[in-house]
Structures are given as structure tokens and as C-alpha cells.
Design goal:
Layout: H1 7-23, H2 39-54, H3 56-66, H4 76-90, H5 96-109, H6 114-137, H7 148-157, H8 162-169, E1 175-179, H9 185-194, E2 198-201, E3 208-212, E4 228-230, H10 233-236, H11 238-242, E5 249-252, H12 259-267, E6 272-277, H13 280-293, E7 301-305, E8 320-326, H14 341-344, H15 347-364, E9 368-378, H16 387-396, E10 400-403, E11 411-412, E12 417-419, E13 429-436
Parallel strand pairs: 5-6, 5-8, 6-7, 8-9
Antiparallel strand pairs: 1-3, 1-4, 2-3, 9-13, 10-13, 11-12, 12-13
Helix pairs in contact: 1-2, 1-4, 1-5, 2-4, 3-4, 3-6, 4-5, 4-6, 5-6, 7-8
Length: 438
């Protein structure tokens, strides 16, 4: 349960929600005046925004049952304020007097005093009828708090798992670190434990450590010194699959924010690594991570702002032994970390991602040495981005074979392996190993 705080935090949360739903921004890119809040209230506003967006369609369904008539579009801020109050009462288990009174007074701060009584009445009615309403909600898909197109796609691709995927998406992900293999890992763990954090290891990723309670990573001792990075165990599997060895030419084709880039160098700093990203701003993030971990200026390390698919703009004509293509995708496997993805994506965007992925595969394939490996990865659960994409690629390229990767994690996806969200506490991820036969 979250302790109540000031109404301004609630209004900041509303602005964040509006930035996502009305302007298509991610929560990470929103500010909405929150910088004027105390750190405590800023954290509370983020907590509310994440929670409402995680459960938005379920909250909308509940509010529709409680309102005598729909609100006008110009009053969607009041609609969302009601959703915020319902979230606090239902999911967050906030003290009722705080949730109801503070949320209702939010309407006055929005200069809509007429809505104060309405919000108060709606939330108090939810208190009285909560059991019946929630029982009825369980008979509707809205209980899963996903847009209809996304649920339909999950049902089609995962007829036996779609409910479990949606439920996993609605649980906040734990904080996972990747311990730097070039640092004293035992000492790093001891420092974290002495600071009051509980730690847990992962069965499939030896460098992965779960931290509880979760905190902003900059507040964790050892982060600025490069002793660890934030990375889900599913993403940490990539370098072990790629198996790059000293002296090999390796391409990290779509590298930002640089987690896999740094992990490759932590495992073997003697590879010749070319790092690409089409965004100069995101390349800055990669540089910052490399600097923090002590890899900036490393011999054989080349960073370039470029579109990996436009090979004439950046390739020097020398083939690569290994290519890591962590392809742009729907990010449907990381919704539990970024609930706004549910409301920012649509079927047309998924189709566009599929087109971009195919172009990257086709354009990067000629750069791979005969006998080399291209590791194709996405943080998606959609088959058209994953096994479907790889099978289409194999039909176009008779010099390619697909296999594994081998492992006890995930499930066979024919070809490749798929991790579904929440499995072994990992994000949804897909890997396929493509080898060049001639």
C-alpha cells in the first residue's frame, strides 16, 4: 500500500497519463511539471501513472458501471481522475478517506468544482458495490486490462497461454542487475546487502541478481563505479549465445541503450566490436554506459551513428564473424516494465516493425562471413516478429540455416526459442541463431 501524499502529485500523474494517451509519449519521456515536486511526491506521481496505465481498460470499465451517463470528451481529465481514485481503492489499497477526498479535490484544482461531488459519489459507490462489480468484471476481457487488438493477437499466437501472458504483463517486473564480470562480484553483493538490500540469483543467467526493495539504480551503491548494470536476465542471455571469441569482428547492429554492447565487452574485451544506432541521442546513452563501465576508447571498439540497414553508409567492406541483431520490435514482451506500451502500439505499428526487421535481416546478411553467426533477437511475443520472421528469411536465403539456441529456458519456437513474460521472472524475449553456409 502506498502512503497518501499531496493532490499535486495526483495532478502530475494525470498529466503523465495524458502525455501517453493523448500525445503518444512514453512515461520515461514525460515530465508534466513533476520536476517542481519533492522527490517523494514525484515518485508517488510516477507510481500512480504506472498503476493507472497498467489497469486502464479495467478501470474504465468500472467507471462506466458507476457513472449514470458517460462524461464528455472535454472532461476526460475527470474520467481519468476517477480511474486514478479507483486504482487507489482497488489495486493500491490506499486508505479510503485519502483516496476519495484527495481525488475528489483534484477536480477543484482542475478548475472543475462541479465534478468534486460526482467523483466523491462514484468512489463511495465503488466502496459499497466493490464485490459485485469485481465479480462481474471477471466475466469480461476488460479484467485483463489490455486493448482488444492486443488480446486478439495474443489469443491467436498463444491460445493456451494468452491469459497467463496478460496477467504477467499486469505484474510489475522485479529489478534485475547484471554484475560486471570484470569487477569483484562477491564484494559488490556484500556492499548491496550491507546497504539493506536482499539479493537473489537467477538459474539461467549467472551474472543476474534480483534486488529488493527496488530503487532507482543511481541510488544503489556501486552503480556509478561500474560494478553492475540494470538488465533483465532474458536480455543477459545474448552474449552467451553469440559466443564471440578474441579477435573476431562483431557487429552490434541496433545497440542502444548499450546493455548487450557492454556485456559483450565484459565477457571478452578483445573482440573487434562495431556498434551502431541510428539515433545520436541514443548513441550518447551507449557512450555513457561504456564510460561508466570503463570501456570507452577501447582498441577495436567503433561507435557510429547510422541506420544498420543502409550498409553503404557505414560498412568498411570487411565481413563480420558475428552479428547481433536486437531488432526494433513491438516491445510486447516488456509490457510489465512499460505498461504504456499497451496504449502506444497498434496492429499497424506491429506490421511496420515486421517490415523493418525483414529489411535489416536482408541487408545485414551479406556482411556475415561464411560460417558466421547472426543472432536475431526481439523483446516481442508475436510470432510474426519472431519465428514467422525467421522462417520468411529462410525462404528468401538458401545459404542460411536456423537452429536453437539450446537451453533449458523458454520454449522451442520452430525455429528459435521464446520466453514468455514472467517465465522464471524474465521479460518476454525471442532468440534465433542463423548460420551462413556458404
Amino acid at each position: 500500500m502506498t502512503k497518501p501524499t499531496g493532490g499535486d502529485a495526483r495532478l502530475t500523474a494525470l498529466k503523465m497519463i495524458a502525455s501517453v494517451l493523448d500525445r503518444g509519449q512514453s512515461l520515461a519521456d514525460t515530465d508534466s511539471g513533476g520536476s517542481s515536486l519533492s522527490s517523494r511526491d514525484r515518485a508517488f506521481a510516477l507510481h500512480l501513472a504506472y498503476g493507472v496505465l497498467r489497469w486502464f481498460s479495467a478501470l474504465e470499465w468500472l467507471s462506466a458501471q458507476l457513472l449514470s451517463k458517460p462524461l464528455k470528451r472535454k472532461d476526460r481529465d475527470i474520467q481519468r481522475l476517477i480511474c486514478l481514485g479507483l486504482y487507489q481503492l482497488w489495486i493500491d489499497e490506499t486508505a479510503p478517506h485519502a483516496a476519495i477526498n484527495e481525488t475528489s479535490e483534484g477536480a477543484r484544482k482542475l478548475k472543475k468544482p462541479w465534478a468534486v461531488g460526482l467523483i466523491n459519489a462514484v468512489l463511495r459507490r465503488f466502496q459499497r458495490e466493490q464485490d459485485v462489480l469485481l465479480e462481474t468484471l471477471q466475466r469480461h476481457d476488460e479484467r485483463l486490462a489490455h486493448p482488444a487488438w492486443l488480446l486478439d493477437a495474443l489469443k491467436q499466437d498463444w491460445p493456451d497461454d494468452w491469459v497467463a501472458i496478460a496477467e504477467a504483463n499486469n505484474r510489475a517486473a522485479p529489478l534485475w542487475l547484471r554484475l560486471n564480470s570484470r569487477a569483484d562480484q562477491a564484494k559488490t553483493l556484500n556492499v548491496l546487502r550491507e546497504a539493506g538490500f536482499e539479493t537473489g540469483r537467477h538459474p539461467f543467467s549467472p551474472a543476474a541478481v534480483k534486488i529488493e526493495p527496488a530503487r532507482p539504480v543511481a541510488q544503489l551503491p556501486g552503480f556509478s563505479e561500474g560494478h553492475f548494470s540494470v538488465q533483465d536476465p532474458a536480455a543477459q542471455l545474448a552474449p552467451g549465445i553469440l559466443q564471440a571469441v578474441s579477435g573476431q569482428r562483431v557487429l552490434d547492429a541496433c545497440a542502444a541503450p548499450g546493455g548487450k554492447t557492454c556485456h559483450l565487452l565484459e565477457i571478452n574485451a578483445e573482440i573487434e566490436l562495431t556498434v551502431l544506432d541510428r539515433s545520436a541521442q541514443r548513441m550518447t546513452m551507449i557512450r555513457e554506459n561504456l564510460q561508466r563501465l570503463g570501456f570507452a576508447g577501447r582498441p577495436g571498439l567503433k561507435l557510429q551513428v547510422a541506420d544498420a540497414a543502409d550498409t553503404r553508409d557505414w560498412w568498411d567492406g570487411q565481413p563480420f564473424d558475428r552479428i547481433l541483431l536486437d531488432a526494433p520490435c513491438s516491445a510486447s514482451g516488456v509490457i510489465r516494465r512499460h505498461p504504456e506500451i499497451k496504449w502506444l502500439r497498434n496492429a499497424e505499428q506491429v506490421a511496420e516493425a515486421v517490415r523493418i526487421q525483414a529489411g535489416l535481416l536482408d541487408n545485414l546478411w551479406p556482411l556475415l562471413r561464411t560460417g558466421g553467426m547472426l543472432l536475431y533477437a526481439t523483446c516481442s511475443v508475436f510470432r510474426k516478429e519472431n519465428s514467422g520472421q525467421v522462417n520468411s528469411f529462410l525462404e528468401r536465403h538458401d545459404d542460411a540455416t536456423a537452429a536453437g539456441p539450446d537451453g533449458a529456458w523458454g520454449r522451442i519456437a520452430s525455429p528459435g526459442r521464446q520466453i514468455l513474460p514472467g517465465e522464471e521472472e524474465m521479460d518476454g524475449f525471442y532468440y534465433a541463431v542463423l548460420r551462413k553456409t556458404r
